[in-house]
Amino acid sequence: MSWKNFIPVLILIITSCSGDDNKGKLLASVNDAELYEIELKSYLKEQDYNPEDSADLASDFVDQWVKDQILVQEAQNNENVDNDKVEHKVEAFRNDLYILELEQELVNERLDTNITDEEIQQYYESHPQDFQLNDYLVKVLYLKIPVDAPDIEKISYKYKLYKETDINEIELYAKIYATNYYYDENNWIYFDDLLKEIPLQDINKDRFIMKRSKTRFEENGYHYFLNIIDYKLKNTTSPLSFEKNNIKERIINIRIKDLRDQVKNEIISKAYNDGNVKIY
To answer: Which residues are bridge partners to 139 per DSSP?
Structure first.
């Protein structure tokens, strides 16, 4: 029986395993090293995968375990490998993992993720150098419509948004006929991101944007409509509305760093105060 045929049965056995004391079936061995079902079960618990991928995932795990054991045992038997040096590094790494896990648990218990608009505004005003634009930001209306869609000439006028009611008709039309459609008068996007969606060619980007161009063209079976409603110059400060989520992430990261330092210092101070530390 091949590994991939065996794995679905193996998964069923593992999920019905009576407890962690039962190692289950022996899956592989390399000399004296042995891999049991319980180790595969532990590995699968930590993975985010689709059930249909379980066979491949388990097979890959066993295969990688075998390869690792072969290399580890070869290293252990090689007289040029300094085992004491390796053990020292392993111990240091294990200690770091314990500390990291402890910090993470305590930080998760205390972390406040609520951030006020005042905090965001203060951070934005205090770090203007962090929000310099490297590209134009724009507010746009963009439509991609198949060439066989009806009333194209009507849209050719409406997309220019000469009247407030034009956008309502555009949105209704887009829901029915558009392959792609974007309009958000409150939020900015990078112009270069827009170019990934619309095949604009041979334009002077600076002039095109600063003139707030309105353009229509046909290519590869589609009509494209683009209206530059507003823009922010590159090499200027990015607007707060565009950076709001970015600033929230920054503030939370600062809180996490501060909490890590705080919990470590509290634990260390307590150990000294309780008389658990003796330096000889």
So the answer is: 230
